[in-house]
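Q: Got a minute? One more chain.
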Amino acid sequence: MKLKQWIGASVLGLGLAAAQGAMAMDVPGPLVTPQWLHAHLKDVTVVDIRGGGSMKLFTAQPQFGKEHRLERTGGHIAGAILVNFNDIRETRTVDGVKLKAMMPTAEDFTKVMDNAGLDTGKPIVIVPTGNAVFAMDRGTRLYFQLRYFGVPHDQIAILNGGTNAWINAGYPVSSSPAPKTAGDWKASGEDKAILASMQDVKDGLRSGSEQFIDARPTAQFLGIAKKPINKTAGHLAGAKSFPIDAIVKDDHGAAMFMSAADYRKIFHDFNISPNTPTTTYCNTGHLASGAWFVVHEIMGNKNSKLYAGS
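A: Always. Here it is, folded:
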């Protein structure tokens, strides 16, 4: 090989190696700690997910109550892009029925994430506000949709406890507005192995081959209360209750997911199998995404699905 060709090939090789090296970092698991995120802030894309009244707190400072515990989350991790939870689901018509909070199309979801500023090239760390299970489940729903639309499992994680855990760990927050630069992320496929269709649910109920986990509050499971979106109260026949107050534990105002061992004990008490083919559901696929995250990602039951229509 001539010297000029050798130099060119070497430079190209170094460039490819550098590009691969930039993509080589994997997240350590589906959950990361504030300490890990702080050490790798420059290596990842932080995606702040919130909705409703908490959207305006993105540019506020946190407030504290008794014993310095957080009363509400204000501010965000510097450099984070902001995603509105209300934008990642959409109203769709299925069999002539208008259904709210459904899975978006790949095109619509790509548009939402690009408008938020999500780029390719770095692992994604999703950061909910972390003040309650509902907030953490916003994070799990976004996690589920990114996984469904092609993000590999080793390139995405959730900050356990969200922004509240970050603040509790002593790290600073920013109150600057979110960046307005469009991103270039694109949905790259659809992992239908993790999404249950209505027909899947019907078949599972008919055959008895599926375990159904109801992730709603106990009162809704028992039919004592119901959301306006539901026509009838109660639960799917044979479903097991995994209520929201058993999904996370509080740590000084931060809602924390637990270990696989902790969940095995909880599942034993609720008579839930950790290994049986499982479908999680709720009212709109919001709370069910948290149960799916526990079963599929933390406990490792890869034969589990989310029924997003719920």
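A: The chain has two domains: 27-168, 192-306.
Q: Perfect, thanks.
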